[in-house]
Amino acid sequence: MTSKKLLIAGGGYAEIPLILAAKDLGFRVITSGNREKDLGHQFSDQCCLEDFSDKEAMLKLAKSLKIDAICASCNDFSALTAAYVAENLQLAGHDPYNTTLLIHHKDRYREFAQKHGIPSPRAEGFDSIEGAYNSLLNFQFPVIVKPVDLTGGKGISKVTNLQIAKASLEKAFQISRTKKIVIEEFIEGSRHGLSTFIRDGRVVFFFNDNEHYYLNPYLVSAASTPADVSPETATILCKTAEKIASLLKLNTGIFHIQYILRQDIPVIIEICRRAPGDLYIQFVQHATGMEYPTYIVKSSAGMNCDDLTQIEPQGFFTRHCIMPPRNGRIKEVIFNQSVKNNIIDKMMWWKPDEQIDNFLMQKLGIVFLKFGSTEEMRQKTEQMPNLIRVDMA
Q: EC class of this enzyme (predicted)?
């Protein structure tokens, strides 16, 4: 019997859990992307290099492969492409393409959120530097400037006055592929993520975390769970997720939220309908024992997910991304003795003498740790860049 074909629109290290889960489900897995050396390709059955942000090229590839299902990688462009391909080939498991655009383009989502009373920062979208600059006086400084179509902290700036605004606007416009940006109010508070799984419009599983940052204030470098928030926070956010699911008629699958807790009120910063990056879904699996990657693949392929129910974290866990402190050559990654017994899993891809050119973005590996108490988790997670130290030449 010939295996059904599943195309993953990507093939990086973050997609490895999805690739393995799909193979366990019996799919012949084909990975894509435009980087031949991406780590995920060595785990798939076939690699067909194609830029997953090019939806027409990916549609052509999907037709030639005669795929039975498509799954997004941990990237918004991939989510858009997966929805586009699924819509054109009438594959199950994905929202309509226009719905996916609304969710993953920040200007569209901010407008939707404000229209429907969803707790989000006050924001406005712009397609010109002049229009954005002239509208800054309508905001109270500081503000955040973001490209509408990028994640991982790319192109984001905090603007505190008009004098530095133009450079930030130019940076965001330059990096945006659609040449659109949003300006939004700056929200103070603790930062968190809530990953939910929606089935028939209801949240049947959620996972709450604390976000941690190293040298880049806009790029999550670690996540820990259980989250340092009240149970009511998750209740509010799950109800909000269900409201969005109802308004947009969302299909079964992952619905991930980033939020800031401001005076005990959760303010949603970003949402997405694809797996978060940096092996986050493996983090969920370690903490709960639930095979989160499997359910994401199942939902993407239109398969039954009726057996998924709520499971709480079974202890205290952190996922830590190893990042260099500056540019230069890597000498060594040193693990402090005090955390060696906490490590339950890791994936490393750094090499001695490897050149680092963008230390604010580049990652050398990912480590999963389990702790004996909330206090140990908090203390060691905040100190992790010193406890797992990158020595540079």
A: ligase
